[in-house]
Design a protein that fits this description.
Layout lengths: L1 H7 L2 H15 L4 E7 L18 H7 L14 E7 L4 H5 L3 E5 L3 H4 L3 H9 L3 E5 L7 H5 L4 E3 L5 E2 L6 E2 L2 E2 L10 E3 L10 E6 L4 E6 L11 E4 L17 H20 L5 H20 L1
Parallel strand pairs: 1-2, 1-3, 3-4, 4-12
Antiparallel strand pairs: 5-9, 6-10, 7-8, 10-11, 11-12
Helix pairs in contact: 1-2, 2-9
């Protein structure tokens, strides 16, 4: 930004240049979210990725009115139900989601998924308690019991493209997240309950480690599932879930985004406009 401002001769023009550059280079993408189906998460019951408790959420994120060209978020989301987890299947997704995945079931895959994340894959971990948090615990953000009171916070989960949420609920087994390693891994507290317990942690792409993907961890799967969220119409839990999805999907889409061919044709015009503005200052 400083270089652009210097070329333009003033701060206002520098900001305009950045805005123009963003407009010229930004494009919508297609992102695939995949998770373990019931064959890989047999103890998860309806909370497996293809289970009944995720029906409302899955329908909402594949609704083109929510995600897709002309939707609230321009990125299209595709869903993959993984019956096998290996380097090949992970290469076919942008975001891996683990909803209430028992440690005994995830054990054969933890190291593979963690390495995939460290090499740029994006993770959503919907944990409840120490029996379903193996990946998060390995990454330094384990789960313990919370008192289940309502959660609040700011952007990106409570304030985002799908609106403003408040008093997001937990239900059933409820958890809080260990914040000991926040500074070590560049993470932030994104939700706290009425007792000040941390119920969501956000870690943008590249913050956990150089080259790592984005990371979003919740202390309770039912903050997103049909046990707490409704998506038509949206309640506060639903808004919270879609804002969180948009936050991680936008980063996943940006990782491989390049200008469309038509965009390159616009670049000379944009540069000419900047040159003219410079001459007038």
């Amino acid at each position: 930004m400083n270089r652009i401002c210097g070329l333009a001769g003033n701060r206002v023009l520098g900001l305009s240049a950045l805005t123009l550059f963003s407009m010229l280079t930004m494009q919508a993408g297609s992102v695939t979210i995949g998770g373990p189906d019931t064959t890989l998460a047999p103890n998860s019951d309806a909370w497996a990725w293809d289970g009944g408790e995720l029906t409302g959420y899955r329908g909402a994120i594949t609704d083109p009115a929510n995600f897709g060209p002309g939707g609230i978020d321009p990125n299209t989301i595709n869903i993959a139900d993984l019956t096998t987890i290996d380097s090949g299947t992970l290469a076919g997704i942008n975001v891996f989601i683990a909803p209430w995945w028992y440690n005994t079931d995830s054990a054969p895959y933890n190291t593979l998924i963690e390495n995939w994340f460290l090499n740029g894959g994006n993770l959503i971990l919907l944990d409840d308690d120490p029996t379903t948090d193996a990946i998060a615990a390995d990454l330094g953000f384990g789960t313990s019991g919370s008192d289940g009171t309502v959660s609040n916070g700011g952007a990106p989960l409570f304030n985002g493209p799908f609106g403003t949420a408040s008093d997001v609920t937990q239900s059933g087994d409820t958890g809080q997240l260990d914040t000991t390693n926040l500074a070590t891994y560049g993470a932030s507290i994104c939700a706290t309950n009425a007792s000040g317990q941390t119920t969501a942690i956000c870690d943008p792409a590249g913050s956990y480690a150089p080259g790592a993907g984005a990371l979003l961890i919740l202390g309770d799967v039912d903050m997103w599932t049909d046990g707490g969220a409704t998506y038509s119409p949206l309640n506060d839990n639903g808004i919270f879930a879609l804002n969180g999805t948009a936050w991680i999907v936008d980063q996943a889409a940006d990782e491989g985004a390049v200008p469309e061919p038509g965009t390159f044709a616009l670049l000379p015009a944009g540069l000419l406009a900047l040159a003219l503005l410079k001459r007038r200052t």
